[in-house]
Amino acid sequence: MIQVHSLSFGQYADIEPLNPAFVSGSRKLRVTVDTETVPRLSDQGLARRLVEAFPGLARHQCRAQPEQARPATGTRILLLDSDSSANQAHLLEHLMLEMLSALDHAPRLSGVTCAYGAPPERNDIFVECAEPESGGFAALLAVEAMNAALSAEPLGPLYPDVVNCTAILRSSPEGSWSAPWLAERAGITAERAATALQFLARAQLAEPDDYSMNFSGEPLYRFVGACEPGAN
Fold it and tell me: How far is it, in rounded angstroms, from Cα 190 to Cα 114?
């Protein structure tokens, strides 16, 4: 199981030389996580599950070229031959970037993963991120999706739907939203949209709006909070 130790937000200029694709001075999210030292799923198997749910990962490209690394099946994401802990963190980095790109409509983002010498399961992940709220949500959602994949639970359609629906809601005028309204814009069924809204409610990013009157009888939801990391 992957566990989050901390989330923070800053420029972290000292890590920019580790990835020449970083925009100098860009704001970044730092996520410190513990990964599995004895993996329940092979690194290639984990990558396949992630790409099945989020096909955009197949277009990601690693800038660094470490020794004894090979691409994950069907991707250009490089994985080390004998370090599953670092590989899980690296895949988490790319999943966060994929989610952030969708949430903030950002066509290009970069990141880097730094493994600790001790404890061996600990890693720092840095990703470019303009909005702390997006970063905090993407980090926690990506960790939950990774843990679902490691537990052999299906990722689709729930996790892609949550990302898609959240991106739509963030770009919509303030107010309350129903599942049918969201389903029409997301191109999914009303049942799937309702499940995505319920997920956001459990994550405390949305709540049923008891004060909104409508004649359909459909529950309405509104955003109420943020998974915003602290500044550093």
Answer: 41
Q: Write out the two tokens for 97.
A: 């970037």
Q: Tell me, what DSSP letter sits at residue 76?
A: B
The string of pLDDT tens digits covering residues 86-130 is 999 999 999 999 999 999 888 889 999 999 999 999 999 999 999
Rounded (5°) CA angle 33-39-41 = 115
Local structure of 28: helix, strand or coil: strand
Among 92, 83, 105, 115, smallest CA distance to 29 is for 92
DSSP secondary structure, 36-63, as one string: -SS-SS-HHHHHHHHHHH-GGGGG-B--
Dihedral sign from CA coordinates of 27, 31, 37, 39: negative
Q: What is the pTM of this model?
A: 0.90
> CA of 230: how far to CAs of 9, 39, 144, 157, in Å?
6, 30, 20, 31
DSSP 164: H
Please give the Cα distance from 161 to 192 (Å, whole number): 7
Q: What are phi and psi of 59, to 5 degrees?
A: -95, -5
Q: Of how many residues is the chain composed?
A: 232
